[in-house]
Amino acid sequence: MTLAETSQLTPKLVQFRRIAIKVGSSLLVDPGAGEVKRDWLAALAADIAGLHKIGADVLVVSSGSIALGRSVLGLPGGALKLEDSQAAAAVGQIALARIWSEVLGAHGIKAGQILVTYHDTEVRRRYLNARATIERLLDLRAVPVINENDTVATSEIRYGDNDRLAARVATMASADLLILLSDVAGLYDAPPAENPGARLIPVVTRITPEIEAMAGGAASILSRGGMRTKIEAGKIATGGGTHMLIADGRIAHPVARIEQGGLCTWFLTGSTPVTARKKWIAGTIEVRGALTVDDGAAKALVSGKSLLPAGVRKVEGDFSRGDCVIIRDADGHELGRGLANYDADEAAKIAGHNSAEIETLIGTPGRAALIHRDDMVLKGD
Length: 381
Description:
It is a single chain. The protein is of the alpha/beta class. About 40% of the residues lie in helices and about 20% in strands. The protein has helices spanning about 5-10, 25-30, 40-55, 65-75, 80-105, 120, 125-140, 160-170, 210-215, 225-240, 255-260, 275-285, 295-300, 345-350, 360, and strands at about 20-25, 30, 35, 55-60, 110-115, 145-150, 175-180, 205, 245-250, 265, 285-295, 310-315, 325-330, 335-340, 375-380. An 8-stranded mixed β-sheet has the order 5-6-4-1-7-9-10-8, sandwiched between helices. A hairpin with a 5-residue loop joins strand 13 and strand 14 (about 335-340).
């Protein structure tokens, strides 16, 4: 690929409305001092503030809780026992949240901590709860700071690396870009430490077996970190409609440097988070029920609106929140399908009622839409 062709394919950060940034422990924490690299983090916070100023939503996937906690607790170096890792994480999470709050607060930005496990991003109900919390924080112009909940996670229920976690969180939050800040400038065609002539790959339009080979061959159950997990993250991200890039995070203002033309590798996708999600809903989800809507609701859906309870005339099936249901018009014709925000029994109680009545009808405050427009695909979409 020529330089001109690469330049044409390379996006600009200003094009993206929602950006996830992954920060690893090695970038954030000085292993010798056992403390956060405050000058570096302050520079990154300034970069995040710059993205905020141009209107972008930003979320951060941050490692560092165990590294900080082990220093505070005086735990030895090297591999820790599970209970020591969990104890270190419990202490370190407090310190990590405080530090992110301070550096972002210096720019007038609020930070919100979210701790997740593998199950929170894979089990549908937990996934929807986490997604809704992230969405609300972004609506409020706060920066969610997300980390794996190492205080409760074990080897059986954890990601084990924040590259894949970051990719899953990015797609969950419908981010259109994921930035993996790393200790290398990007993907090379050979290990740069061993081969001085190794060439950086600036753009990857599709993750092929050849690309995987550059990262060190097929994945194994023993893989942890490194370029291998970044390629796996690339598969998750691009499959969910999220562009991804790997860039050198060891420099000051690493995100600003990307926009200035600094070395990095882009992993491009031909989709968007919304279209990828709609494709998933349309073709790969088991249908568990049906909602029949009136003519007014049918017209509103076609115009791009969410499905409100007031427009629902009939509820069928035994579905749970997050399950896929068919949407039918008054004549029984299928309009589309979507992910329900309520269990079937709750949907039946609120059907035909105004959204303001939801709390009275089911006893707890709920979401205004029975199916949100981003969780719905109509015939012809």
